[in-house]
Task: structure prediction
Amino acid sequence: MRLTRGELKQLAGPVVVGLVLTLGGAALVWSTGEALRSGQRHFAAAQAERRQNTERLARIAEEEREVKEKIDLYQRLKQLHILGEERRLEWADAMARIRKERELLDLRYTVERQRLLTSVAARPGNIDFYASTMKVDLALLHEEDLLRFLADLRESGNAYYAVRKCGLMRTGQAVSGAGMTPRLRADCEIDLITLVDPAKK
Result:
C-alpha cells in the first residue's frame, strides 16, 4: 500500500509528536533512573553515617563504663588507705593507741624498709605496689587478744594490712593472783601495702 503525498503530510504531525513523546519518555525514564540511583547513593551514605554514629555512641558508652569502673576502683583503694606514700607516723600513732586502748602489757614492733612487691601495667603508666613488713612481738592474756589487735590494726587505716604469718607460743609463766600475767606471746609479720603511681613520685 502506497501513501499519497497528502496522506504523508497528514501523518507527519503525529509521527513527529510520537517521536517527541518517545524521546521525552526516554528522557523521563533516564532522569527517573538517575534520581533513583542518586537516592540510593544518599540512602547508602545515610546508612553508613548512622552506622558510624551508632558505633561512636557504643564506644562512648563503653568508655563511660570503663571510667566509672576505674572511679569505683579508685574509691575502694582510697577507702583501704592503699593509695600514695607510706604513713609511718600514722602507723606509730595507731600502734600506740591500740596498745593503750587494749591495755596490752607488752607490744614491740619494727618496720622494715619499703620494698617493691610488683608493678602492674596500666594506662598511661605502670602502677607499683610497695610493702613494708612490720614485725610484731606481743604478749597476750589469751588468743582473742591477738584477733582484737589485728582487727584494730586493720580499722586504723593508713595502709592495707596483709598478715603474712602469726605464731603463738605459751610463755610457761604461772598465773599469779597479784596481777595479770601473759600466758601467750605472738610473733607476727604484717605487710603494710601501699600503691604508688611512679609518674607522681
